[in-house]
């Protein structure tokens, strides 16, 4: 047996991403304090989200899709007195990703 220690593998960084469903995109967008930060249509959003995943993969960053659930998100914001915006979406997705 070799006495050499095995190198420690670095854990890939993971980013949680709110993953909208086509049928609920407009409803989710209408509840946000920053609807202008979301894309005009689900198809536009999906194109950009898939592009973001590819970009992150190229940087060796893993993405975890977190299915967006309106009621869960709104409750999350209310309990924490958060404005339902991009920052809250990121926090919510990160918390939900830990449950997956």
Provide a brief overview of the structure.
This protein is of the alpha+beta class and 100 residues long. The chain has four helices and two strands, in the order E-H-H-E-H-H. The mean pLDDT is 91.
Q: How would you characterize this protein structure?
A:
- This protein has helices at 25-31, 42-58, 70-80, 86-99; strands at residues 14-19, 62-67.
- By secondary structure, it is α+β, with helices and mostly antiparallel strands.
- It has a two-stranded parallel ribbon with strand order 1-2.
- The longest helix has 17 residues, at 42-58.
- The protein is globular, with a radius of gyration of 17 Å.
- The mean pLDDT is 91.
Instruction: Give the H and E element order.
Output: EHHEHH
The major beta sheet can be summarized as: 2 strands, parallel
C-alpha end-to-end distance: 39 Å
Spatial sequence of strands, sheet with the most strands? 1-2
Query: What number of domains?
Result: 1
Q: What would the average pLDDT be, to the nearest integer?
A: 91
Rg over alpha carbons: 17 Å
Sequence stretches where pLDDT stays below 50 over 5 or more residues: none
Share of β-strand residues:
5-15%
Essential attributes:
alpha+beta, 4 helices, 100 residues
Secondary-structure blueprint:
Layout: E1 14-19, H1 25-31, H2 42-58, E2 62-67, H3 70-80, H4 86-99
Parallel strand pairs: 1-2
